[in-house]
Amino acid sequence: MVVLIGRLMHRGILALIIAAVLALGGWPAVGANGGLMDQFERSVGAGAVPELLKAYGGEYDLPVWERQWVDAVFQRLVGATSRGDAIPYSLTVLNSPEINAFALPGGFLFITRGMLRDLQGDPHRLAAVLGHELAHVELKHGINSVLRQLGMTVLVEVGMFWLDVATPELVRAASAALLQLLRLGWGREAEFEADLLGQELAAAAGFDPVGAVMLMDYLLSIESEERSAGLFSTHPDSAARRARAARRLVNFWSDPVRLDESAQLKVLRDGRNSPSVARMDLKGRFTVDLRPGAKGTPTLVVYDAQLQEERKWLGDQHVTDAAWSPSGSFLAVIVVDDAHNYGIQILDRLGRVVQEWWQPLGSEVFCLRWDPAGQRLAYLVDDGEHIKLVVGYVPGKADLVVYSGEGIADMYWWEDASGVVFNDGSHWYLVRGPRLEPVIVVNPIPRVLERKSFFSPTIEWDGDTIRLTRPQLSIP
Q1: Is residue 66 scored above 90 in pLDDT?
Q2: Residue 457's pLDDT is what?
Q3: How many CA atoms lie within 13 Å of 429's alpha carbon, on the beta-carbon side?
Q4: What is the C-alpha to C-alpha distance for residues 363 and 172, in angstroms, rounded to an integer?
Q5: Tens digit of pLDDT for each residue in 137-147?
Q6: Structural domains in the chain?
Q7: Of 439, 354, 475, nearest to 68 (Cα)?
Q8: What is the largest CA-CA distance in the chain?
Q9: C-alpha span between 135 and 78 (Å, rounded)
Q10: Pairwise CA distance, residues 93 & 68, whole Å
Q11: What pTM was computed for the model?
């Protein structure tokens, strides 16, 4: 570093120029001289890669079919970035059970096998993780932190890109600083910025932005575990991050668009062909009914065809409507408590409440509509002044008002579940949700199922003792 300072002493004029550039708003845009800056950023990140691989057990080789699936998610996200053409993004799975993921300047992304395992093949949560890390690179959080850490001396040396090239000494110093900063994190504001942009990248790539909310729920559930210490030591409060991600979900829904005559006729035809309330689950085991209870109000009675008996899953609680999800996994119920508060409760197939959304006093809930996948529930809320069209994400445990107006006569999910159509009494309108695309692996490697042999010992009695003979091979 002394050699660097000595060289810079002879270029005082350049130091003044760089200082002026910083004062006027920072470095030149990537489009102007970004190629050299991108090369420097890439070199700094590459210099830190060997130490990270060593610290996290090296690279983990996923099964080929799983690697293809992860790459398919990753490449779609890269396609939504603005720097994807300037820097070659890469993703490495680390051989560590720790729950972690991070990115280095220059486009080097990492995720541990522990986190990948816990995501359980959910593409939307994986997109939330990778989108967040891509956002750090897109926003240059890492390289900017390195430049701030090393001070004006290195900034001046970086300015020499316009006249020369970065020195190996500078790159090594920057990579060493990067490893130290990575352990400290990029800062709370940087994490929040990456959350927001990451959610947008996921939505632009065709993933559900509710994946960010589901990811925060997962992180909240493991915050007390030792294996998550490396992740939470450098990130802001997960509850605050979840609240922000949930509030932003409404931004991915469109304003109402009036349908033309042919589309309105299609909605009416599809609506007539769809049952308004699915009282029997798809699997044919449970049938629900509403009957007067001890308080004189309707209660939920469920007939179990397998056990051939009736049960009250919610006791004598006042219930006004119920509908099974298309898959039969959930039962949505409109309930009213003793204070006349209306709410939605989501029950699983054992009658347990897994999610609920309560409305303000004086609001009435009606009209339950499940999306075809059984992951979202649309319903209407009358607060006395407006009718609100609400969409609740069941796995994401979030609900949002996608439209509020003076009146809604009816509503259904659009044919491809991309949005909700509603009638204001005279016309039909469509409110579109985020564009969702399934993950398709091009030319997939088939997942081979191997027949395994099982050795079963033969048991023989010898008086009061048991003797195990040589195991015999049996094919399942």
Answers
A1: yes
A2: 57
A3: 18
A4: 63
A5: 999 998 888 87
A6: 2-251 (no CATH), 253-432 (2.120.10.30)
A7: 439
A8: 101
A9: 10
A10: 13
A11: 0.81
